[in-house]
Amino acid sequence: MSHVDTLARELGPIVHTDAERLARHGRDHWMLAEIDAFEGAPRALPLAVIEPTSTNEVARALALCRALRVPVVPYGGGSGVCGAIQPEIGAVALSTRALAGLRRLDATDLLAVYGAGTMGGDAERLLEPHGLTLGHWPQSIELSTVGGWVATRASGQYSTAYGNVEDLVLALEVVLADGTVLRTRETPRAAAGPDLRQLFLGSEGTLGVVTEVTFSVRARPAATRGQAFHFASFAGGLEPIRRALRGGFAPPVARLYDARESRRNFRDFVPQGRALLLLLHEGPASVVPCELEHVERLCREAGGVPTDAAVVDQWLARRNHVPSFRSFLEQGVVVDTIEVAATWSRVGALYDGVVAALSAVPGVLAATAHSSHSYRSGTCLYFSFAAKPDDPRRLRETYTACWQAAMQATLAAGGGIAHHHGIGRVRRPYLAAELGDAGLGVLRAVKRALDPDGLLNPGNLIP
User: Fold this and answer.
1) The CATH fold of domain 325-425
2) Does the domain spanning 102-219 belong to CATH 3.90.110.10?
3) DSSP-derived 3-state class of residue 170
4) H/E element, 387
5) Which pTM does this prediction carry?
6) What is the spatial distance between Cα 94 and Cα 276, in angstroms, rounded to a whole number?
7) Which among 271, 284, 367, 439 could bridge 358 via Cys, Cβ 3.0 to 4.6 Å?
8) Class of domain 3-95 (CATH, top level)
9) What does pLDDT average to over the chain?
10) Are strands 49-50 and 92-95 parallel, antiparallel or unpaired?
11) pLDDT at 153
């Protein structure tokens, strides 16, 4: 009897083998996977797709797969862009999509408990009638699950004020490789040893399967106001962001685009050669005007020139629209985004170094960046590149060269190689340089302890 037959016999109708479902769970939106599909390259598909409807079914499925020594690739929304979903031969995909919905809402404690397969947009809409919000707005909100946010250590567009997913998660339910169910306690903070939630935040399906997420939610803001300025240089526009955060102000959105991105995306609002800063302020009606006034003073002191705040509305309307990779590949062009992070004292050199390194790759047409998530001690730079190799058969080679250039320049500048998209397979070769030998040893030791057979998402994250 085959492993698939055994799984079907033991688990019943939650095991699927139809071709459409296997293909849909065979990859994420990594550019290399898109290139393979475009070029018609063969790829491994999961043996089966398991779609549990409860935590108990997840536990039974993982225990059975471990007994059979069948690798398991956890699958949420499939919106990742780093190659975390790439089933090896003989693996099954375990979808969390049937673990969906708002399971409990506590308006006093401001807690919202979701099944891990709840899509992000649905999670937010379920709070709206109660006057509440997650405050978490990743660009992929309509394509990603709340469990996927945890697994990739995601960040949202409003994170400068509201924090990233690790700041919003209050408790987790996770099924380990042997079928054991771990539930962390619902408490606003604890000093009961290391925070076990952090083991799974960013683990990308290699340490367990997230089945339930408890968020600390917030009241919807009473007031929202946009603001925009342009600057003579990218470095000049970073300075008021740094000073605002240092002074205790934290606009949820503070996005600074370099001159090329400003011209490409907002040409009606910014003169050529200028860097555009978009700001969105939210909070109590009495607080927002104060923050507006303070940030405007900082921007003017840094040489900023006000522009029409309607540009913020334009960004809000278009912020989640992303052209398909396929449309670029059909033109012989490979594109991608690379988000990294650095402290304020290093970010200027990081920006210059990565743009120069990308621009030096043969075939690169554009290398640009914007600052998208900021903190008291530094910021995230979100780079974009487009390249057209002379030989269309070199799409993969050119793509890999661009990533290598960006990662090496980031490490040379003392930056962190990933801010919110995770590691997957595209950054895996650079993780040792990021963590160091000791850090990588700790990560491998945790993997051996929680998944001694190496069955959870093998080949992903860990070099």
Assistant:
1) GMP Synthetase; Chain A, domain 3 (3.30.300)
2) no
3) strand
4) strand 378-387
5) 0.96
6) 43
7) 367
8) alpha beta
9) 97
10) parallel
11) 98
